[in-house]
């Protein structure tokens, strides 16, 4: 980065840098030992990074082609402590740190993070399902290990700028079974009818029973669900409100709704959607649960702390790099960045590996610094990121991010 490179004590390698060079700060690949680089960043980049993602060696007891992952626990914790201490000042007051690990050092790492960040700033521990219970893993005399873990800590949880996320729901929510024919009418005038009957008529049948008899129960259910998604603004469900959690005005309207169950009541609210009631129950609209994902309308639900929808299989060709057993899916990093950053925010990865974090950040319009000391900086990171800049990488989250190329990065060593 042009503005702080001299302070780093590192020279910009123009021969390895690539793409457009901005007038001010630029994305940076730092080819150096990460503790040295983190310490050097503490002055110019203090409090700048909205998201720091770490995928450190897991201390698996194995030796890989790229690095030796065999340490004593004391040595591993000392290594992690030094780097976490060095990066802590770099995190923005509204930012967070995401550390991926397996269960080998999960407990000791959480204790260390609780100490350094304060346990009150722990946001969550996310379970990432990375494989299925098949193959040689399944013959172990214990439950099959198929998960990694993502420890999430905010710099200050009260100020953490979390951006709520959703994920595609598996299957239709059968609670949404009521159809409103004329949603453009005033809510107080809404009429309600069974979704199944309306969908059957739309398919050319007189009744749901006729449609089910002709198509078969499973086929009709699929057709009804497709119809519901296509007409989501008309489809509603009824849900019991949390009486004790709403305002005095809302409680009074709930009481009126219970007394007059056939009427629809509406309470306008300044900071929330109108509260629509019938028979003492809230009306929830299916349209609020539908999103377009890769051009397909799907039903979504709030993101939980179990991620079993980010496949690790089939990522061998992502980014055009081979990093056996160590590469993470671009969709995983995209979700992390969506949770914790906005376009233009700074992202840091001190264990860059094959360059996944930098590639995803670049495609998503975030600014980034990646640190890597191994030979795969030249073998993996540089070729991958050049393809991203050129718009030649069509894998990973390229399509979802609508990335077509551009920008650039500096290499510092």
Task: Describe this structure as you would to a colleague.
By secondary structure, this protein is of the alpha/beta class. The protein folds into 2 domains: 5-165 and 304-412, Vaccinia Virus protein VP39 (Rossmann fold, 3-Layer(aba) Sandwich), CATH 3.40.50.150; 178-302, no CATH class. It is 29% helix and 23% strand. The protein has 12 helices and 21 strands. It has helices spanning 5-8, 34-41, 73-87, 106-118, 195-202, 208-215, 217-230, 248-259, 330-340, 356-363, 376-390, 398-401; strands spanning 18-19, 28-31, 49-54, 62-63, 68-69, 91-101, 122-129, 147-154, 166-168, 178-179, 193-194, 235-239, 264-267, 275-278, 281-285, 290-293, 296-302, 306-307, 346-349, 367-372, 408-412. The strands form 4 sheets. It has a 10-stranded mixed sheet. α2 (34-41) packs parallel to α3. The radius of gyration is 26 Å and the shape is elongated. The protein starts with a helix and ends with a strand. The model has no long low-confidence stretch (mean pLDDT 92).
- Enumerate the spans where pLDDT stays under 50 for 5 or more consecutive residues: none
Question: How would you write the strand order of the largest sheet?
Answer: 1-21-2-20-19-3-6-8-7-18
The CATH class assignment of the largest domain is Alpha Beta
Helix content: 25-40%
The figure for the number of domains is 2
Q: What's the overall average pLDDT, rounded?
A: 92
How many strand units?
21
What is the CA-atom radius of gyration, in angstroms? 26 Å
> How does the overall form come out from the CA principal axes?
elongated
Strand % is 15-25%
By helix and strand content, what is the structural category? alpha/beta
Oligomeric assembly = single chain
Identify the CATH homologous superfamily of the largest domain. Vaccinia Virus protein VP39
Distance between the termini: 12 Å
